[in-house]
Amino acid sequence: MTEHFCVVSGEMPETMRDALRGSFAEVIPLPPDGDLAAPVRCHPDMLFAVLADRLFVSGRYFRENAAVIEKIAAYGGFVIQPADDRRGAVYPHDVAFNAAVWHDCVICRPESTCASLLDFARRQGYRIVPVKQGYTACSCIVTDDAVLTSDRGIHRSLTRAEIPCVLLPEGGISLPGYDCGFPGGACGYHRGVIFLCGGADTLPCAEILRQRGYRIVSLASSGSPVTDYGGIRIFQKK
Fold it and tell me: Theoretical Cys-Cys bridge with 190: which of 25, 26, 220, 234, CB 3.0 to 4.6 Å?
């Protein structure tokens, strides 16, 4: 069986990491990025993006955390692409890597997305699908057959672009420090399974996910709140 590994927030509870270790060869936690706001400083969907064989990451973050980024790149067979786009804790300067990739489509807010990522995507023949929401990866659960989101603007844009998209009910996801969290930030998808950062019984959209044929693996006990930790990034181990 092909081995896979995952990358998670360094602030994800150890109990959830232990639950993931039962399914993946290794779980790699990310250290904080001092350029970002404290609640999201360890979130994978804020810290890096992978497109084809390239791993795009802030140059400063890479220099300060080279060992972790090089480990991810070595495991996944990625070429590290440091970027020096303007970076900061205030939107939209915090979302350079917050792009969702579905097959040959890069879904993002282009004016806020890492310039070198967009340039590489275009050169490789990817289709750039623009949306107004800068927290695109946070907002989307990307599966093999569709993109699932509770963001109505993203849903409208993807529907117009003829990308299969399912609109999920809002709510039920927390992100300490903010009013709410996002579906993509609260889980990871792999081979028909959604690994959920909380108890599925507390998530309003859980039944919709099951009806579409996805199996939900709760990383916390029944009744536990679902929390946005910046997503679980899952890759094949080369």
Answer: 234
pTM surpassing 0.70?
A: yes
| Helix, strand, coil shares, percent, the chain, to 5 | 30, 25, 45
Q: Which two tokens stand for residue 48?
A: 């890096």
Residue linked to tokens 């996002």: 182
Q: What is the pLDDT of residue 31?
A: 98
| Alpha-carbon 60 to chain mean position | 20
Q: What type of residue is 40?
A: V
If residue 120 lies in a helix (H) or strand (E), which one and from where to where?
helix 115-123
Please, which residues bridge with residue 216 across strands? 194
State the pLDDT at residue 109: 98
Cα 25 to Cα 72: distance, rounded to the nearest angstrom: 13
Residues 6+ apart with CB under 8 A from 128: 105, 106, 108, 110, 118, 121, 122
Report the C-alpha gap between 228 and 16 in whole angstroms: 13
Question: What are the boundaries of each domain within the chain?
Answer: 4-236
Per-residue pLDDT tens over the stretch 86-96: 999 999 999 99
29: left (phi over 0), alpha (psi -120 to 50) or beta: beta
Closest residue by Cα to residue 174 from 221, 217, 138, 226 = 226
- Which architecture, in CATH terms, is 4-236? 5-stranded Propeller (3.75)
Check if the beta carbon of residue 82 is closer than 8 Å to that of residue 44: no
Per-residue pLDDT, 98: 98
Mean pLDDT of 78-101: 96
